[in-house]
Every structure is written in C-alpha cells, then in structure tokens.
Amino acid sequence: MAINGAPRQIKTLGYIGLGNAGFSMSSNLPQNGYHLIVHDLDQDKVKKATAWKNTTAATTASGKADPAAFKDCDAIITMLAHGGIVKDVLLGVDGIVTALKPGTIIVDTSSSSPFDTKALGKELAEHQLHLIDSPITQTYMHATDDGRSTLMVGSDSPEHYELIKPVLQCMATYIFHMGPLGSGHAMKTLNNYIMASSICALSDSLVTGQKYGLDPQTMVDCLNVGTGVNFPTMDTFRRDALTRNFNSGFGLALLVKDLGITEDFMKHSNFETELPGILRGYLSHSMDVIGPERNKTADHTECIRGWEDRSGQMLKRTEELKNIPREDFEHRLKGLNRS
C-alpha cells in the first residue's frame, strides 16, 4: 500500500543543483538503476550529466527548469546554495510544485536554516508533498565522488524516511536519522560551526607560530598526531591552504553564510554565545581582503589571506605535499577503540 499518497517504490528522481557536491552525488544515482532528471543553471553541467545512462534534462532553452519534466518523479532532490533558493525553485514563479504528483518526496540536501525548513515543510504539505532535510558532510573532501559522504536526516515520517533511504544510501556511506524535520539542518549548522571554530583557531596558531619561528607544515604534522588534530589539519588546510592551491571545493562565502545560520540557531535556542559572530567576523574580513570581484567564488581555505593581512606576514608555502602514513591511523584506532 502507498504511504499517504507516496509511491510504493522510488524509481524516478529529479535532481536540482549540479554544483561541486551535487554533480558528484547525483552521478551515483543512475549507476544504481534510478531514472534521473536533472536541472542546473550551468548548461555545461547539465550536458555532462545527460551523458550518464538513464539521465535526461529538465532544462528549457532559456535555462530555466521545466516543471512538466518532473511530473513523473517519485522524489526530488535539491542541492542548492541555501534554503531561499530551494523555496523559490519549488514555490516561486515557475516553481515546480504545480507539476508534481501528490505524495512526491522532496529531499533538501542544501545547507539551510532548520526553522526555514520546518516552515517550508508546512507549505509543501498543503500541496500533498513530503519534505525531508538531508544535508551532507564528509569524512574527507570530495568523498561525494564515490558515494562515501555522510548525510544528516530530518523527517517527520519514519515511513517516508525508510522509503527514501535506499536512494540516500547510493549517495552516502553514513546516514544518521537525527529526528523530525529540521533536525538534519540543525546538525549541519552545528557541524559547520565546529569546523569553522577549528579553522579560525588553526589560522591564529599558524600565523603566531610562524612569527615565533615554527614551521607551519611541521606544526600541522605535529597536530595530526596530537590532541589538536581536526578536519582542517588532516585535510583542507594541509592539502589546500598551506600549498596555496585553494581548491578544496567548498566556498568561503558559503561558510560565512552557514555561520549566520548558526547565530540564528543559537538565538532561537535561547543560548547566549558570541563565538559564531566572532568567527563570522574574522572570515568576513578574509572576504574583504580577497576583494569583491572574487570573494563569492573564493575557496574557504583562502581565508588565510585575512590572517596574513592582520599578522603582516605570509605563511610559508608547502612545496611538496606528503601522504599521511597508514600507521598513524592504525595505532590511533587501536587506542581509540581500547576497552
């Protein structure tokens, strides 16, 4: 029997948003037998995606989404910059909801405010549509390429969650049902808040450490086998900041936006903390240093330019990136799993 009008089985998927993460995440779906209908403002990305098997485009000649192309979809997945764009694509002028069949599940993997998500869920319910939030995080950058990302899911309906779960499993190795609608986006904002805290503390440490005479790369190597280890030391700053490649795939403007969501989340939770605003201030300064012509596209690891500006020195560049030794992980796993 169908669940409140939802299909018994998901077969046809709409995917809206083929950015850095969206393109690689969606590529795993047709490989697992789903018929995929894609849309993005970047026509080149759409063209590349339609080269996959079982994949067609929902993009019109003008570059807009054709709502009618999604009429047979059992579920729609969005991967867009923020919740405002998600709402506009669904409910705005030329929004696709009017073409969707009752019971269609909409999965928002974007980074959005949990409160906006709950409000959007109520609006979509009036159209007999079911919203699930499922933002992503990763064990390493570009884990989305191999379907090895992590999804944090919020759903009011356990039945709809179980129905969409096989789809999510094509895109992620780790799936956590965090609670009702909005819970996934709540976890996402806290995840990025913690990451941003690490970035700012690490950037402080690198510039002051170098001023004292410490080598930045040696500092990161030391932190990675010490209690100061974190995602930037293991991945993004090690690979992209100190090498000055600045190509992690996650934008600085998005991180600043996410910290605004964190501030809002803390206020709604009646918890008083100045840290999200302080972090956002430092990272916003980095955007100012980078300049308006590039700050919307700058990689988040390029934030070190703000710290270099305030410290009056440029961090020493890592010329040759070395792999992290396997034994570093083997011995720490034994220690972490000790009885």
Automatic annotation (TrEMBL):
It comes from the Eukaryota. Pfam families: NAD_binding_11, NAD_binding_2. It catalyses: 3-hydroxy-2-methylpropanoate + NAD(+) = 2-methyl-3-oxopropanoate + NADH + H(+). The lineage of its organism: Eukaryota, Fungi, Dikarya, Ascomycota, Pezizomycotina. The keyword NAD applies. GO terms for biological process: branched-chain amino acid catabolic process. Residues 13-179 form the 6-phosphogluconate dehydrogenase NADP-binding domain. PANTHER family: 3-HYDROXYISOBUTYRATE DEHYDROGENASE, MITOCHONDRIAL, 3-HYDROXYISOBUTYRATE DEHYDROGENASE-RELATED. This is 3-hydroxyisobutyrate dehydrogenase.
